[in-house]
Fold:
Amino acid sequence: MLELKDFRTKVHNDWCPGCGDFGILNAIQMALFEMKLEPHEVAIFSGIGCSGKTPHFINTYGFHTLHGRSLPIATGAKLANTSLTVLAVGGDGDGYGIGAGHFVNTGRRNLDFTYVVHDNQVYGLTKGQAAPTLPKGQKTKSMSSPAIVEGINPIATAIVAGYTFVARSYALDVRHLKETLKAAILHKGSSLVDVLQTCPTYNDINTKEWYAGTELPSKAPRLYKLEETGYDGTVKNPEDTNEVNQKKGQAIIRSFEWGEKIPIGLFYRNQEPTFEEMIANRMPAFKEVPLTKQDLYHRDISALFESLT
Ligand code: SF4
Ligand code: MG
Structure:
């Protein structure tokens, strides 16, 4: 009988004390445990950055890949063994900066996997430079002057790219994040969970207190849950183009709300054919036996050679 501790490793964790990454790590471990997944059924891929260390701390298969390159490697693993539950984790710099091309094109494919982004608006591992989600005009304590370019909107970008499950959560609300991750993993298709993550060492703007709204006149939390407002981001009829466009449109508009109120929760969900299903339709052998189980050494390829002569 598996226990939560079976998803932990003994690897030393050198994240800064109080880092929001701990909340994300705990939420991933709890989600996998509550979904009754076995460690050998899960593979987690990461890029470079503080978030890149995540697979070291989770007792599943894991691969700490290159900067911005976790998604193509996760894609290859999922195609090789479609029975795996595949997660990719990375930072906003890793995924929305150097990895932005892969971020967009992975969404287009609708591969059945979950992408968890530690979104702290800075490059924490390299001393807090402005990362792609830092809004224009903001200056964290390690910057000499405010950012002169606009930040990217990952929710809107993911919806336009083709991700079929797009959500946002908060690293310090582990229960909400865990439930969001479980829904994302259950979803058949590409899921993005953008996680607002505090970086107490370098981001002195978007702090725990800032998200809690303690300096606002209202003293009310900035974060509110979409699901508690009657918002419904789920497409009921994927064949209905009008409904699909309406749900995408409302999600994109909502995703630009950023200030005294910031929504978290599920922005958009739609059920569309996955990349694996589309490949299987073209290559029936892909569906019958996963590539990892196919006998690559005893295949008769004489017909192929004859066709080349
Ligand atoms: Fe966390 Fe920031 Fe420290 Fe990195 S630099 S471990 S993101 S607090
Ligand atoms: Mg970052």
Remarks:
- The CA atoms of residues 235 and 270 lie 5 Å apart.
- The chain has a mean pLDDT of 96.
- The longest helix spans residues 241-255.
